[in-house]
Amino acid sequence: MSGEPGNQARKRPALSPSRAADFKQCPLLYRFRAIDRLPEPPSTAQLRGSVVHAALEQLYGLPAAERGPQAVDALVNPAWEQVIADEPELAGQLDTEQQAQLLDEARRLLSGYYRLEDPTRFDPQSCEQRIEVELADGTLLRGIIDRIDVAPTGELRVVDYKTGKAPPEARALAEFKAMFQMKFYAVALLRSRGVLPTRLRLIYLADGQLLDYSPDEAELLRFEKTLTAIWRAIQSAGATGDFRPRPSRMCDWCPHHEHCPIFGGTPPPYPGWPDKPWDGGADAVLQHRTEPAA
Given pLDDT bands bounded at 50, 70 and 90, which one contains residue 12? Predict the structure, then answer.
């Protein structure tokens, strides 16, 4: 097993938390996003999430004593510039008034962060950490972890920031997907570092809530089998192009109705399973930093 990204590994299709969740929700949605790469312009809420993530990353780049509320407030504009630098085509998506509103909302979310954690009291080991690990059966996991904390005694904490609010009817599913993501990261760290993460922390900035969960090793080993089963199913569908739609209440939030047979649409011609460098969608920083409402 390997925990370090290599040139050869990066040329292989890989499984990311978001794409695994897509396939479980609807195989055709997975195809649209991971194989067809149909465009999905980010919403204002997703852009706001990107700014918040970038500001928190920059915050933890400062000395601990300088991480007060005034510091993070001042980092919002530089964070916006970072997001635009990563994705230049986003620059014209918002007019001046919309951009000002987005940045004000980001500041409110970041102000609330200080009621949940005190960033002056600890130093993360890493922020926005790219991770890649190959499991024993060849399944390649890839993702970007918001924050990894390591205690002086060696305990590992995995942290993810959530900036969106799920609609009431989709809240339970959103929570399930969030915890799926965290267990994915826990498995990747267990296999790459040989260390069991002792705490998975979800920070809901919009709701002002913390959710801590402590997995055990047996649970993560079972979850690892779930990931390998998902990847085998994806490969099987990829070999034939048989990515079938799976109707659910989540269809209301799908941006690809015009291509979905359930809504009278027609998928584009299947391009085949990728045979060129391809990352499965896990390495797009903007995509990682944003999440849909559910």
Answer: confident
CA distance 192 to 70: 37
> 5-19, 85-99, 155-169, 217-231: which has the highest mean pLDDT?
217-231
pTM (2 d.p.): 0.87
3 state DSSP class of 119: coil
- Identify the sign of the CA torsion 270, 276, 282, 288: negative
The H-or-E segment that residue 211 falls in is strand 209-213
State the Cα–Cα distance between residues 146 and 62, nearest whole angstrom: 16
Where does CATH 3.90.320 sit in the chain? Answer: 13-37+124-267+276-289
Choices 3.90.320, 1.25.40, 3.30.1490, 2.60.40: CATH for 13-37+124-267+276-289: 3.90.320
Whether 9 shows a pLDDT value over 80: the answer reads: no
